[in-house]
Fold each of these.
Amino acid sequence: MNPEEVLWWSKGGKLTGSSPDRIAFLRRIVEESPGGVLDPLPSDWDVPCAGVKDDYYLYYFGFNQPKFRNMNRKAGIHYRVEIIDTWNMTVETLPGTYEGSFRIELPGTQYMAVRLTRAVS
């Protein structure tokens, strides 16, 4: 609600507060995906996933707060891994590449995402 007590989602108008920055951050994440879209992929019971099989995965943990995640991808395909803090709007690229089965350490806070992008050889 803005100072005039108008709900943007019901009346439109000018976005206020951190909403414009948050929408821009989400837009950037979507635009960085292959084709600029996030198609749903089969996922585990506790975390939705979108992307392109074997090339790009975006996992969103929402209100869950894991300290780590074990990933199981095809051996021989290397991925660049990024930890996305959707609340603070930051992206941290982990060093190196990962393949096969590997563990990603997470901060144990809400609204985190993990992005796996196939590394170009």
Note: The beta strands are 40-41, 49-52, 56-60, 68-72, 79-85, 90-93, 101-105, 112-118.
Amino acid sequence: MTTTTELCHATPEDVVLRGRSLPREVVGKATFTEMIYFLLTGRDPTPAQRSVLDACLVTLMEHGLTPSAIATRLTYGSAPEAMQGAVAAGLLGVGSVFVGASETCAQLLARIAAAPDGAAEARAVVAESRAAGTRLPGFGHPLHRPVDPRTVALLDLARAQGAYGPCCTALAHLSAAVDAAAGRAIPVNATGAIAALVVDAGLPAGILRGIALISRCAGLVAHVAEEQAAPAMRTLWEAADAAVPYQPPSQEKKP
């Protein structure tokens, strides 16, 4: 069997992306967001799909001195000759706890959307999570309570663009089930909203963490730029050292 790629081919005269000439058909005609969608799917996004994906990329780009940003700053301060290493260090922290939880959330939303009774399926998902003692991805935030303003903006955009689809509806069912089980309002965080919007926009659920990586990469480059102009690495290092003081082992712990 011959292995092939449909993504790109370069010649001395041209660079071809999925059958389109980069210099003649793409440069100056397609936006960065449109090219992400095109390369991932082989299709041009509709205006609504482009708008939704663009908003999701903007939303995930930056959220302050989070673990990924701290890792980038500390690494850049240690090895300023290797910006790529600093950004890579931050991207390694995009996972199931921070930034990258939308992929797991999308799988749950797809299950709910496919069920004959979405509300009942959402309650089943919550019951299973509580029984297992696990946290549902896409819910809760240490700062944004009782609502995540990013989620409100994203879902409002989806409605305005006519892009509020089955996964957005499933997210509403799941949110209601989570609140009912907790007895209080639990915010849908940005990764939960992005899971719904990106899948409803026609992108595969399995690529969602990649969307987060693309977005956060730009934010981490901005942290490097700020670190170049106003280094904070030493302050972060000293703050960590002060916050976690050394304590000799107790006698009972010694062998």
Note: Residues 208-229 form the longest helix (22 residues).
